[in-house]
Amino acid sequence: MNAAFAKLPAPPYYAVIFSSQRTLAAEAEYAATAEHLFELVRGQPGFLGAESTRGADGFGITVAYFDSEENIARWRQHAEHAVARERGKSEWYSHVELRIAKVERAYTPPIRPKG
Amino acid sequence: MNAAFAKLPAPPYYAVIFSSQRTLAAEAEYAATAEHLFELVRGQPGFLGAESTRGADGFGITVAYFDSEENIARWRQHAEHAVARERGKSEWYSHVELRIAKVERAYTPPIRPKG
Questions:
Q1: Measured distance CA(A107)–CA(B18) in Å, rounded
Q2: Alpha helices by DSSP H, chain A
Q3: Residue B98: how many CA atoms within 13 Å on its side-chain side?
Q4: What is the least distance, in Å, from the CA of A43 to any CA of chain B?
Q5: Predicted local confidence at residue B70, as pLDDT
Q6: pTM
Q7: Which residues contact residue B86 at a Cβ distance below 8 angstroms, ignoring those fewer than 6 apart?
Q8: Residue B43 to chain A, least CA–CA distance (Å)
Q9: Mean pLDDT of chain A
């Protein structure tokens, strides 16, 4: 297991599934903001963990996990998060989708490397 | 919007969130199997759409959407899917996480490009 995986408690908990297509704009600024927001969210009430990746085509998926919908709403209201969302809409993304889900079951399937 | 985004009906529906770390093994075989499974799942009962991406570090997230937990279970039982899972556990992945969630709300935030 590596650091890309979130270590989460047993369900139930909530997932914010954020899919996004990056524009080619402002890579350095985008990367710095994303890193800063990740530091911020780690200190938010009810934040459980997150996983994120983006392919060479600029399509990315981030899943952030929280203990409750109330704490998802609280993070949404965070001032720096709100500013970053506006920048995202005007410059960093060409399309985004956001889905809020309740995680009901979770498994870590066993890996069995061949001899 | 590009083809990487799933076009989904209004919630509620179910999400299978699959996070995986690829090994360096068998890239051509892995890619061919992944493409074949994607073709298969598109024909499964209750399949609504999927989004998937993987970064240069080999960490990937795939989210597949279904109309019900019953149809998620049916896809899990598909013979070719089961064979591919076993290959994944023995060769393609070094770690995986699987989470089943009920999507309760979904948004397409408006993108507002600057002049």
A1: 10
A2: 27-42, 69-76, 79-87
A3: 12
A4: 23
A5: 98
A6: 0.95
A7: none
A8: 23
A9: 94
Q: How confident is the model at residue B105 (pLDDT cuts 50, 70, 90)?
A: very high
Question: What count of other Cβ atoms lies within 10 Å of the Cβ of residue A50?
Answer: 19
Report the length, in residues, of chain A: 115
Chain A residue with CA closest to B1: the answer is A95
A95 contact residues in B (CB cutoff 8 A): 1-2, 5, 108, 111
From the list A3, A97, A58, A23, the residue with the least C-alpha distance to B49 is A97
CA–CA–CA angle A83, B11, A42 (5° rounding): 35
Check if the beta carbon of residue B47 is closer than 8 Å to that of residue B64.
yes
| pLDDT in the model for residue B1 | 57
